[in-house]
Design a protein that fits this description.
The chain has 75 residues and is an all-alpha fold. The protein is built from three helices and no strands. It has a domain of 31 residues. It is elongated and about 50 Å long.
């Protein structure tokens, strides 16, 4: 089972009201909905980061490494 960390956040009242509404509609805790939303957002960010790295590669501003170098720790 995954460990959980407690955090405190401040939200605009309109966003908190929407969170409360969705929480009640789905019968899920607010923390569950926030965690799911963050997971989805991080997936989107991963795509943006990958696109940025690919662009740098295509522009010749970064290169690649071999698996052998990665395994040796020389990369």
């Amino acid at each position: 089972m995954e460990k959980h960390a407690r955090i405190n956040i401040t939200l605009p009242e309109t966003l908190e009201a929407e969170l409360t509404s969705v929480s009640k509609e789905l019968n899920k805790k607010k923390s569950h909905i926030i965690a799911l939303a963050l997971q989805l957002y991080f997936d989107e960010l991963d795509t943006l980061i990958a696109d940025k790295r690919y662009k740098k590669y295509k522009e010749g501003k970064s290169g690649t490494i071999t698996l052998a170098d990665l395994e040796k720790g020389t990369a």
